[in-house]
Amino acid sequence: LAVPGFWRTRFFDARAARPLPPPRGMNSLGDGGAFGACFTPDGRYLITAQSGGSVRVWDLRVDPSVALDSTPAPVRDLAALPVGGECFLVTAQADGTVRLRAATIGRELQTPWREVMGCNVGDQLRCVALAPDASRVVVGRADGHVLTLDGRDGRVVQDLGAHRGAVGVVRLTPDGNTLVTTGADGHVRVW
C-alpha cells in the first residue's frame, strides 16, 4: 500500500498493517507532493498523481521513472486497470483535464503511452473512475455533478446532479454496472 503525501510517500504492508521502508530508500516520488497513487494490476509499477500536473510511472525495482506530462494543473485522482493486453490509465486534473492513456502489458510501462482520449470538463474536477472495459470514464465535480464520459472521444453521455456540494469519490463495481459516489453533503449514493 502506498500513501502519497506532500514531499513524502509512505509504504505499508496491507496484510500485516505495518509500515514498510520505501523501495530503494525513495522517500519522495517526484517534485512536490502527490495527490494520489495506485499500483498497476501486476503490482510492478506505482503510478503517482503529481501536484505539478504530471503523472509518474515508477518501476519499483529500478531507479528511473517516466513522466506523462499534461497541463500544469495538479493531478487530483487517477485509476489504472488491465483491459485485454493493455494497462489503461485515466487521470483527472484540477483544471478539468481528463486523459485516458494505454500501454501494452508485458513491455516496460515506461515506454511511450498512447493517448486514447483527452477532454476538459471544467475546472471543478475532483475524482475519477474507469469502467472495467475502459469504454466509460466517470468524473466527480465540486458542483455535485457526476459526469459519465465516452472513453473514446470524451463526449458527456450522462450528467447526474448527484450531491449538494463537492463529489469526493466515484467508484464503479468490478462489473461496471453499479456506480457508488460520496459527497460533501454526507451522503453515499448507489446508482
What percent strand? over 45%
Overall pLDDT level: 82
Q: So what's the overall shape?
A: globular
Distance between the termini: 28 Å
Order of strands across the main sheet: 4-5-6-7
Helices and strands, in order, run as EEEEEEEEEEEEEEEEEE
The total of beta strands comes to 18
SSE order and pairing:
Elements: E1 2-4, E2 9-13, E3 18-20, E4 34-39, E5 45-50, E6 55-59, E7 65-68, E8 75-83, E9 86-93, E10 97-104, E11 114-120, E12 125-130, E13 136-141, E14 145-150, E15 156-161, E16 167-172, E17 179-183, E18 188-190
Antiparallel strand pairs: 1-2, 2-3, 4-5, 5-6, 6-7, 8-9, 9-10, 10-11, 12-13, 13-14, 14-15, 16-17, 17-18
Characterization of the model:
The model has no long low-confidence stretch (mean pLDDT 82). Helices cover 0% and strands 53% of the residues. The chain is globular and about 45 Å long. The protein has strands at residues 2-4, 9-13, 18-20, 34-39, 45-50, 55-59, 65-68, 75-83, 86-93, 97-104, 114-120, 125-130, 136-141, 145-150, 156-161, 167-172, 179-183, 188-190. It is mainly beta. The strands form five sheets. The chain has a four-stranded antiparallel beta sheet, with no helix packed on it. A four-stranded antiparallel beta sheet has the order 8-9-10-11, with no helix packed on it.
